[in-house]
Design a protein that fits this description.
Blueprint lengths: L3 H15 L15 E2 H11 L4 H11 L12 E2 L11 H4 L16 H11 L3 H26 L12 H4 L8 H5 L14 H4 L8 H16 L4 H7 L4 E2 L1 H21 L4 H16 L2 E2 L4 E2 L1 E3 L5 E2 L9 H4 L4 H15 L28 H13 L3 H18 L4 E2 L6 E2 L5 H12 L3
Antiparallel strand pairs: 1-2, 3-6, 4-5, 6-7, 8-9
The chain binds (2R)-2,3-dihydroxypropanoic acid.
The site of (2R)-2,3-dihydroxypropanoic acid has 4 residues, from loops.
Length: 425
């Protein structure tokens, strides 16, 4: 069995091997570009042994930021043929080319943590100060173009934006997307790298790609898409991560001497109410919501625990979430499965339909810890470290057997291992 020391060495080796000069790919072949939330988590890993490189990761990510503030979920820094859909399919005329959707906005929070814990204080101050205006522009974009009516919940236009691409939470809203009969033909690349039983189904891919054509026809006009896009949901992954990111943006504004406090505080007031409106008393969980039918998407997913990370839940709701997670724990060996293991949609090996993801565990555990649920937080941390030991630094893990699934030598899993050992709980 590998030791903690040898695993840390291996984790560092993975980040170095995946470094493409200023940005880190998630894993070779399957994901050969820079992804938004991967870059955030990966920066936390770099921070444990190379602070300069950690800040570089975020600076490089922002090279992809649009003039309207949107931070795209993929930046195609250089051509690679092993991934689909690449820049040609997205059709975004920019340098560097990017996708046209976003992903969970973890960065402001991580900039705060990096600033608070940096050894090189001067570097951290300078980097945080220069990133701040870009973070503000990004968060303003969310408010202006994805919640123009100030509902407190952001409208998400693609399952890829949520990060949890094929979560059963999206089954119903995605079923409403009629596959474009004129969908240009395509060849998936993901199933050449990973066993298809661990990846989304073809029917989902056809819809993922259909949505790209919808955006192109609307010239990526967000306000127009808010009424014409056939997929529109409120996602706990986006709303909770954004709420915390706004709390941390407010902290950064105060700490670094920028104004904007009242503006950000207004966003927080709205999103607190928005997130808490997703609570379902009977289930003891938060559910995502379909923003077309306005109905809750009643399937328990790992993101259902993220209002703890956001900090919007009351102590009573935190307590209920703890009980709910105990129920899940009795069904699986490793926490936290991405789907409720008692759900008929639970598939323990298929991407976001059951496997455990180290990055989500990091956020959930932090939430439980901050609400004083130390035992369950520590259980999640220990399970994650154990999974890295038994399943390698894989993209995700089987919650019953611990088997490593998806991509191998995966940057964000290695980064979480380093951060959890380096910074502690
Ligand atoms: C993929 O291609 O699987 C990604 O999750 C989309 O960003």
């Amino acid at each position: 069995m590998p030791t903690q020391k040898s695993l840390e060495q291996e984790a560092r080796r993975i980040l170095r091997a995946n470094d493409r000069g200023g940005f880190t790919i998630p894993t070779a072949g399957l994901y050969p570009f820079q992804w938004l939330w991967d870059a955030g988590f990966t920066a936390l890993g770099w921070m444990q042994f190379d602070e300069k490189r950690a800040w570089q990761e975020l600076k490089t990510l922002f090279r992809g930021q649009w003039e309207n503030g949107m931070l795209p979920h993929i930046v195609f820094h250089r051509p690679e043929a092993t991934y689909f859909p690449g820049p040609e399919r997205w059709g975004v005329a920019r340098t560097p080319p990017t996708s046209a959707i976003t992903q969970p906005p973890v960065v402001a929070t991580f900039v705060r943590w990096m600033l608070e814990r940096a050894q090189d204080r001067a570097l951290a101050e300078a980097e945080a100060k220069s990133l701040y205006p870009h973070l503000l522009a990004y968060h303003r974009w969310f408010k202006r173009e994805r919640d123009p009516d100030n509902t407190g919940l952001v409208t998400v236009l693609h399952p890829w934006e949520t990060g949890a691409d094929n979560s059963p939470a999206w089954d119903q809203p995605l079923a409403r997307v009629a596959v474009d009969p004129a969908l240009p033909p395509y060849t998936r690349r993901d199933t050449a790298h990973v066993d298809p039983s661990q990846r989304p189904h073809q029917a989902e891919y056809d819809r993922f790609l259909t949505l790209l054509e919808v955006y192109k026809r609307a010239s990526f006009d967000q306000l127009r898409l808010l009424s014409v896009c056939p997929f529109r949901v409120a996602s706990l992954l986006i709303d909770c991560v954004l709420h915390r990111a706004n709390r941390d943006l407010l902290w950064l504004a105060q700490r670094l001497g920028f104004g904007h406090q009242a503006e950000i505080a207004g966003w927080l007031e709205a999103s607190r109410k928005g997130i808490e409106s997703l609570w379902e008393e009977e289930a003891g969980l938060y559910f995502n919501r379909d923003l077309i039918s306005r109905e809750p998407l009643r399937v328990g997913v790992s993101a259902s625990f993220l209002p703890l990370y956001a900090g919007t839940a009351s102590p009573e709701r935190a307590e209920r979430l703890g009980h709910t997670l105990q129920g899940w724990a009795s069904q699986v060996r490793y926490l936290v499965p991405s789907t409720d293991p008692q759900s008929p949609f639970f598939e323990p090996q298929r991407y976001w339909r059951g496997p455990v993801w180290a990055v989500v565990n990091y956020l959930i555990a932090l939430g439980f810890r901050e609400y004083g649920h130390e035992q369950i937080a520590e259980r999640i941390r220990q399970d994650t470290l154990k999974l890295c030991k038994v399943g390698g630094f894989s993209e995700y893990f089987h919650p019953l057997t611990g088997q490593g699934l998806g991509g191998r030598a995966f940057s964000w899993t290695a980064a979480i291992y380093l951060a959890w050992n380096g910074w502690g709980g």
